[in-house]
Design brief:
Length: 614
Amino acid sequence: MIRSERTRKRRKRRLYLVGSLVILLAAGGGILYRLPLSLQDIGRIFDLAAGRISGTSADEPSAEPVLRGTIYDRLVREMAVSYRLFTLSVHPVELASREKTARALAGILGEERGKLAALLKKPQRVIDVADDIDEEQARAIGRLRMEGLYLRPREERFYPAHTVAAHLLGFTGDGVGLAGVEGRYDIVLQPGEFRSSDVPEIDFDGHQILGRTGTDLVLTIDLDMEKLVEQRLRQYLKSRLSRRGMALLLDPADGRILAMASQPAFNPNYFWQADGESRRNRLFADRLDLGLVRKLMARAAAVLREGDTGGDLLPETVAAPDFGINATAISDLARLVGMFRPSGRDLLAVGGRTGKPAPAGGGEGINCMQMAVGLACLVNGGWRITPWLLAALYDHATAHRYDRRPGATGRELVLEPAMGIRMRRGLLRAGRENGDGARIFTGTDNRVVREGNFSRYVRQEALVGVIPARRPRLLLVMVMERDGLDPLPRNKSRPPSPAALGRELLPRLLAMSEQKAEARVPGAGNPENFHQFLISRRIDYREQPGITAEEDVLMPDVIGLSLRQGLQRLGRRRVRVTIRGSGRIIAQQPAAGTPLHDVTDCVLTLQPTISDSK
């Protein structure tokens, strides 16, 4: 009985619901009958509804955005910053007057009124009127209080120094850090909270969570020193008709990195235009032989052999070659100071085309970071350091700067204290008691590199410099590479030697390192960088740094490449490309090596291959 009673009540409720639905449908049908709508009107209703969901009314652009965090150098100068831009869309069906709207927008956008009026007359339901509208223009449009105007905000990442520190900073895609510092500290730069365990090297001052309203990074990098190192490296490579090189500048006492360069470079604002060679971070990817620093390592091994009570080494002019030190002793010293251990693994987000740190063991050589860490141990008193980049965080919610935690970067004493002091003296001050300037060491290494069934000669030149000699505060390691062993063509101006480059560069870098930051916390955004950003949005970027003058005016060889690879290589030249067919490039016009001084067009002929058809 109870069950049947419940069943009857459920049936009554269903009947009431069905009856109510029928009444509502009948009422709606009567309204539509008395006020008929065309299909076009119904479509406009749906369009307007969709527009209101996907866009923002033009009178609401003032909401404070939460953007990706800014990256600063050690003097709190912008290296990577995000800006908010808007796209203005117009729904003509909502406009009270298209002429009046065109007249009002012309003054704000800087466009001709007639051009805007013609645009608004197009038979489209949604018209994109302008892109790259800044916040000031958006506020001016909002003050018009006109129906039918909608602003869609978006975030754009900008690197004011363009190619400077490109491999160090990395780049972003769709708001996500993909390489470099952007990728390594993406969880901090992204809007949203993060925990102290995500950045253990930073002292959170009792907080467990930061980042509620955005967080900025302060690096150890000095922007001026970075620019100078990259400029001198490019100039030297150009004098050697090369474009491959790397440089690292750090404090050998505590491991802070002040500059890091890899050539050829790319512009992270247009990272998709860079080929794999330009995006390769040579400080981690390239393998270096100990022969580049053989003379320096031989002297250090000789000091170690003499022991704590040994005398000064004989001058090189009367000493045995390499002070009687063989390759095994040099390799043992390199292992003692940690040159074969992975170094800088957590500095950047590296991998894929950007390369990985060299593995343990000396069979495949070492990378530039490993070499610098080992050399720092020889001149800092015997301490093996850990290189680091992140100096502090600035949290916008607490308006406070959180510095690096004391002891966050470990140091390991690998030489006895007395030997460490004697090692530094033997390397930097032997026979130069009154001098406290720069000490320069150079070396070369020639090798044959096999690439499949072919091989090529490679010549590497190394520059190692420290300053001041008494207690080094800067260590510079620079490696330049070029193909072939043939003498360079004669030039009217003789190119500088690596030693001359070091003597000119190190005193200037030391003077720059004395500069102190005017403020410890970020202030208002740099208006010059924002103006530069707006200008860059309106130009088609083509420049590729690190290309010699000869390469820049000759047609490259693209036969055998895929279309994408060919266009990347041609992207450095200002020519209009015509494509015929599909597949891989089988012919090109003009031919490879043709001067491009007066050439404006290029024709690429493509044809599918067997591998393409599979």
